[in-house]
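Thought: the user wants the 3D structure for the chain below. I'll pass the sequence to the structure tool as-is, report back what it returns, then summarize two notable features.
Action: structure_tool
Action Input:
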Amino acid sequence: MDAIWTTLFALPVIVAFVYFSWGPIIQGVVFSFQRNNFVADAVWVGLDNFEYVLGDERLGRAVMNTLYFAGLAFVFGFPLPLFFAVFVAEARRRRWLFSVLAYLPVIVPPVAGVLLWEAFFYRDSSGLFNAVLGLVGIGPIGWLNNPDLAMPSIVLYATWATAGGTAIIYLAALTGVRADLYEAAELDGASIWARVWHVTLPQIRGVILILLLLQLIGTLQLFTEPFLFTSGGPNNATVTILLLIYRYAFESRDFGAASALSVLLAVALGIFSILYYYATRRWNTGE
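Observation:
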């Protein structure tokens, strides 16, 4: 009887979760097989939307831009929070101040953060970065107007905006590292870098693997930064997969193509996550 009442009590929450979480997903899959602009009646077109998306020359550019961003974010953005967390953990004083300064960008709304950094990226000498470079006789540089510099500039902002939240997670993980391991390493004369490599990293490798996966998935769904900074320019140098989905849906009013590309992205991320799990399972379990 208790099980029945428990089920009845939880049923509204389960129904709401299924309706609002899985309902849009199922509807999106259905849209991917339709020609639908929410004005005329939907027409079932089978795989035509997928053929159109895969044949669109813009898709290759969007995929390469997205992978380029993910690569830059991995090289520069992934190690930084870990190094910062280790630095704060080793600091003897003012840990709270370093933690606050690191997390502060996370609470800044994305639009406000972009507006702030746009002032840094101004192409003339009034921009902060160009003003600093002007002191040594360099510039001015069109950071967001140069196809070669636009994506690295977005990576710089994204690293600033997200690194603090990841660093806080690493700090929480570091509290679980056994203190006696550090003491034994110090007695053996290990330097701080040796302690980090042989003690810290092996002890928190599970957290590292999870955060790496989440970062890769997040970077492959990049939208806000290129949309607000450059709208995909210059010369489509910052068009990403999600930005292409946005263009299908809200510029071309082709919600079928947008849904088809969304489904393809979801399938690709699902396959990538499975492969990542099996590729890192041995290291994660320490076998």
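Final Answer: Structure generated. The chain has one domain: 53-285. The beta strands are 34-35, 43-44.
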